[in-house]
Please model this.
Amino acid sequence: MNYEALISLAIYFVLMLAIGLYAYRKSTSDVSEYMLGGRQLHPAVGALSAGASDMSGWMLMGLPGAVFVSGYSAAWIAVGLVIGAYLNYLFVAPRLRVYTELADDAITIPDFFEKRFHDKSRMLRVLSSVVIVIFFTLYTSAGVVAGGKLFEASFGLDYQLGLFLTAGVVVAYTLFGGFLAVSLTDFVQGCIMFVALILVPIVSFIVLKNEGDWASAAASVEPGYFGMWPKGMTIMGVISLLAWGLGYFGQPHIIVRFMAIRSLKDIATARYIGMSWMIVTVIGAVLTGIAGYAYTYAHGTPVEDPETIFIILSQILFHPLVAGFLLAAILAAIMSTISSQLLVSSSSLTEDFYKTFLRKEASQTELVAVGRISVLVVSLVAIGLAFDRSSNILSLVGNAWAGFGAAFGPIILLSLYWRGLTRNGALAGMIVGAVTVLFWLYAPIEINGKSLSDILYEIVPGFVFSGIAAIVVSVVGRDVLPHVAHRFGEMEKAMKAD
Model:
């Protein structure tokens, strides 16, 4: 067992727990602070927090693994994500920050939907909360799987033990420190990921060049490996990879960061910081996969699981203490996303179920306690789902990403830009989007031996049909309520004033 690397990880764990303790003392007095940090998030913290919680274990394991197997063609995912993230900052972030505060300080996405449409039936709140809890539990399990694989591949520990170690630390600082702890740890984790994804590919290519192996490794791979459009890639395949960018508009754990940034003016600053961080890290992840293929081929290094290529390079090329830091980068990516998803799920269970239907007069202290219990419950379910060692990280993330993107993405955009969207239109869009994704994933339909999801990524039909359903139902339904139109006008005035 690599004890020096374990020391680095132990230091990282202590730092995360210390941040959690600081946040516990600083901002957990009421549910608004616990769930949204009192809307006082610094733009740099907000940007890196959004980025780190977005990228998760797939950035250092899933994406390099996909590139390792498929070559540069897998980078189309990264291209789509960069475009989607930029458009999310540009079109969603400013309006969502203003509108959620105008809408009686809405602190969750379901809360925003209910207040945006003045939905007294609470059907929007309930439906969106159910979607959040189901898909985030699946999403969280993907992060826990990555943690289990990390400890198994790096230290030879039991996979199940790795699950509990990963989840245990995350649950501790999230449960006690709430949103501020999650955001501050995300900031630190984002910095670690940034350094690691520059260091690993650069050192790998330097070693290859010095050993004269790079040219032979490049010449030995199958034709098209280093092309953006390799043999066998179809137009539908490229569209599917680029379509990952559509998911950004409907990811609660990302857009909630926009709601928490301290002012509208800070959104632009957050956009510059966030996009710079993202472009560098996704390029680093792609190059890690390419360097990993070249190095392992040249040296005959066995790779049983392509998603562990970052771990393999870290252990081979670096001193154990540095390797421990690089392994901490993987944990940082994993934990930042898990913590964000746990908090959003907890927020939904607390605000959208417990307070709304069980204890309307619950005190702030009681709601914070319920939020902490919810964090624990969701994490335990996610660990149970992650016990299957064969789970593929990118596949799990892809399914959950598509579910949120299709169910929430069109509704978020229409809610912020079209005052004509009605409650029934939002309900129809949400249902159609989620059902389409599930149908595309699980329907026993094949075309030329391929399932629907193998032909076209399920977010594409889900997003399109969700938007069509929302618009059609809104147009044929009742007129917009006067108070909805008034608040929409207030938002547009605030945007122009800024």
Remarks:
- The radius of gyration is 22 Å.
